[in-house]
Design a protein that fits this description.
- Helix 1 packs antiparallel against helix 3.
- By secondary structure, the protein is an alpha+beta fold.
- The chain is 61% helix and 13% strand.
- The chain is rod-shaped.
- It folds into 2 domains: 307 residues; 117 residues, Glucose Permease (Domain IIA) (Distorted Sandwich), CATH 2.70.70.
Length: 498
């Protein structure tokens, strides 16, 4: 079994969910508002970094989950195959046990025949012993007749022979007994031949029985040994398969536990990502309120400055008018004095020109329409939406647009904004984020992934400024730019703004 991975995620990173919303009336002035805006932007950067880290962990967990699920499917398949083999092994063992039982029964049957053969052998041996005894007796009788005949000059002297055999006899009886002796002699010789033939036949039959018994016994023993070995082999195979089945069941159970843990960790990471998005949305709302406060405070200060300029202009005009009145009165007095002296009056001095009114303060630039320019001059190769990830191999949200741009191509700011910062992750590689402020009631940010390098890392940018360069860092299959737009931290289709 493939060794399962050991994950040490520990736990979901604790979120600082207590995002304090700004209370507009509490701010004493524009500097306080701008300080709070900078603090909110700092928190946004921190949350975005945490979000990227969480996204990276989700990618790793999803990858591990896909691998472990594939291992689990393979383990389930192996277990099903082994279970089928175990069932077949049990069936084979049953057949082997039945065949062994049949062989043992056959051996018992042959043993019974063997007992009969042994009994026949005993009978034949007893018959042979009786035949041998009869032959011995017959040989003794024939030998006696032959010896007596030889001693008395042959068979013509039957009287002595009969006397030897039966005692004294009469003349008539001598002839009868002579014939009897001849028959006895012939019968004895014939019986002796028969006995010899029977002995030979019995010995041949006994040899055949012994040979058959030996063959039957050898066959029975061989069959029993062969069936016993087959039964033992079937038992060993069954035990091996049962052990394999047990191990595979344990491996499958371990993989199921691993999958459950991965799913639990992934759910925790998804919950963390959702909480981070909520925090970013809360921060965006706070930032929107602060921007409104900043705008209102700027307008209030601009109005105060305008009123001050109006008052200053009025004071200067009143002073100029007073000076003109006094000059006119002095001129009249001079003319009056000259008239009295009958002297021609000199030309009056020209009245001083009134001080020019100060130029009005330039009006603030109107807010952006929210339309973004394309960040690179290249065709799009992948749209926003769910797709099969080309590297990780499972379905997930493609949170932006991919541009098929060459490595090193300049990436330009699609609109004016402020660079929130740069970061790096295993999935996105080199990343840059720009805050474009509040657009249509939402805080709009743009993100640029897989960059080869940065031209700018902080500060304000204008539309068309070079900010970075296209690359293929992170989880990437080639040179391209991944471009995202986010409303209050949540990814949306960039086509809505391009």
């Amino acid at each position: 079994m493939t060794t399962t991975k050991r994950h040490r995620w520990g736990g979901v990173v604790a979120l600082s969910t207590a995002v304090v919303l700004a209370a507009s009336p509490a701010f004493a002035g524009l500097d306080d508002i701008r300080d709070r805006i900078r603090e909110v932007e700092r928190q946004e950067q921190q949350r975005q970094a945490e979000q990227e880290a969480s996204q990276q962990r989700q990618e790793e967990l999803s990858h591990d989950l896909a691998e472990t699920s594939a291992e689990l499917q393979a383990a389930e398949k192996k277990l099903r195959e082994t279970t089928a083999k175990v069932e077949q092994a049990r069936l084979d063992l049953t057949i082997a046990e039945d065949e062994l039982a049949a062989a043992e029964a056959e051996e018992e049957r042959i043993a019974g025949e063997l007992e009969v053969a042994y009994a026949n052998e005993a009978k034949i041996e007893a018959s042979l012993a009786e035949n041998a005894q009869a032959q011995q007796e017959t040989r003794s009788a024939v030998g006696s007749i032959a010896r007596e005949s030889y001693k008395s000059g042959g068979l013509n002297n039957l009287t002595l022979t009969l006397e030897v055999l039966v005692g004294e006899v009469g003349a008539v009886q001598e002839m009868s007994m002579a014939r009897t002796v001849m028959r006895v002699q012939d019968n004895t010789i014939e019986r002796l031949g028969t006995q010899l033939a029977e002995e030979t036949a019995e010995q041949d039959r006994l040899a055949g029985i012994r040979r058959d018994i030996a063959l039957l016994l050898a066959e029975a023993e061989a069959t029993t040994i062969r069936k016993g070995e087959a039964r033992d082999a079937a038992e060993r195979l069954k035990q091996e398969l049962e052990a394999l089945e047990k191990q595979q069941a344990q491996d499958k159970a371990a993989l199921e536990v691993e999958v459950a843990k991965l799913e639990e960790h992934l759910a925790e990471e998804e919950a963390e990502a959702e909480a981070l998005e909520q925090e970013l949305a809360t921060l965006a709302q706070e930032k929107y309120g602060l921007k409104q406060d900043e705008k209102a405070e700027e307008e209030r200060l601009a109005e105060a400055a305008r009123q001050k300029r109006i008052a200053e202009e009025k004071a200067r005009a009143e002073k100029a008018a007073e000076e003109a009145r006094k000059a006119e009165e002095a001129e009249r007095a001079r003319r009056e004095a000259a008239r009295r002296e009958n002297r021609p009056a000199p030309a009056p001095a020209p009245a001083p020109a009134p001080a020019p009114a100060p130029a009005p303060a330039p009006a603030p630039e109107p807010p952006s329409s929210g339309v973004l320019s394309h960040p690179v001059d290249a065709p799009t190769t992948s749209e926003f939406g769910w797709r099969m990830h080309p590297v990780l191999g499972y379905a997930r949200l493609h949170a932006g647009l991919d541009y098929g741009a060459a490595c090193g191509m300049a990436v330009r700011a699609p609109a004016a904004g402020t660079i929130l910062g740069t970061s790096r992750s295993a999935g996105g590689g080199n990343i840059l984020t720009i805050d474009h402020g509040v657009v249509n009631g939402v805080n709009l940010t743009t993100r640029y992934l897989h960059l080869s390098g940065f031209e700018r890392t902080s500060g304000s940018v204008s539309r068309g400024d070079v900010i970075a360069y296209v690359g293929t860092t992170g989880t990437s299959t080639g040179c391209h730019l991944h471009f995202e737009t986010r409303e209050n931290g949540a990814p949306v289709n960039p086509r809505n703004y391009l």
